[in-house]
Amino acid sequence: MLRYPGWEDEYRDVVDMLFREVNPERVVWISLGCFRYSPSFKDAMRRRFPGQSLTSEEMFPGTDGKMRYMKHVRRDIYSKMKMCIESHTDRPFIYLCMEGRDLWRQVFGRRYSDSDELELDFSRHIRDVFFSETV
Predict the structure, then answer these.
(1) How far apart are CA 107 and CA 104, in angstroms?
(2) What is the DSSP letter of 56?
(3) How far is CA 76 from its chain centroid?
(4) What percentage of the chain's residues is helix, strand, coil (to nearest 5)?
(5) Is 127 helix (H, G, I), strand (E, B) or coil?
(6) Neighbour tally for 64: CB within 10 Å
(7) Residue 96: Cβ-neighbour burial (10 angstroms; 0-12, 13-18, 19+)
(8) What is the per-residue pLDDT across 56-84, written as a single tens digit (0 to 9) for each?
(9) Cβ atoms of 68 and 96 closer than 8 Å
(10) Which pLDDT does position 118 carry in this prediction?
(11) Model confidence, pTM
(12) Domains and CATH numbers, the chain
């Protein structure tokens, strides 16, 4: 996701539109991720699109070397999108793409020590939400 003036309303409109077109009871998971880019991207953007503001946000290098929004900005974006999705349904497993355990805890109130633990929770969610109804 990108942060820009009006992003909240526009992303809310996208979620509303998606759930008008797709039955929310059939959505298994939703991945949320924020814009990040490699350092060379900024120079390329400035050469090809002078005056653009996409790479003028305050960003910092993550552990993968890519530039990303500050943690409090990402937390705000994820929290708002989570609430927006949950206003339609609580069935999908919502997860964060390329984020550390501290943001998981801040946004969802849970923390995973590794990807295996995340996959186990995801599997439990699918079993409990989607397969417990058919038994």
Answers:
(1) 5
(2) G
(3) 11
(4) 55, 10, 35
(5) helix
(6) 9
(7) buried
(8) 788 999 888 999 999 999 999 999 999 99
(9) no
(10) 86
(11) 0.86
(12) 7-98 (3.80.30.30)
> What tokens does 47 get?
């050469």
CA 89 – CA 86 distance, rounded (Å) = 5
User: d(Cα 86, Cα 17) in Å, to the nearest integer?
Assistant: 14
Whether 18 and 82 have beta carbons less than 8 Å apart is answered as no
Nearest alpha carbon to residue 3 among 68, 91, 94: 68
Strand bridging mode 36-37 / 29-32: unpaired
In terms of Cβ atoms closer than 10 Å to its own Cβ (0-12, 13-18, 19+), residue 71 is middle
Q: What's the pLDDT tens digit per position in 20-60?
A: 999 988 899 999 999 999 988 888 888 898 888 777 788 99
Measure CA 94 to chain center: 8
Cα(87)–Cα(15) distance, integer angstroms: 10
Do 59 and 70 meet the contact criterion of CB atoms below 8 Å apart? yes
Q: Considering only CA atoms, which of 35, 29, 21, 19 is closest in space to residue 84?
A: 19
CA distance 24 to 41: 36
Distance CA 45, CA 99 (A): 25
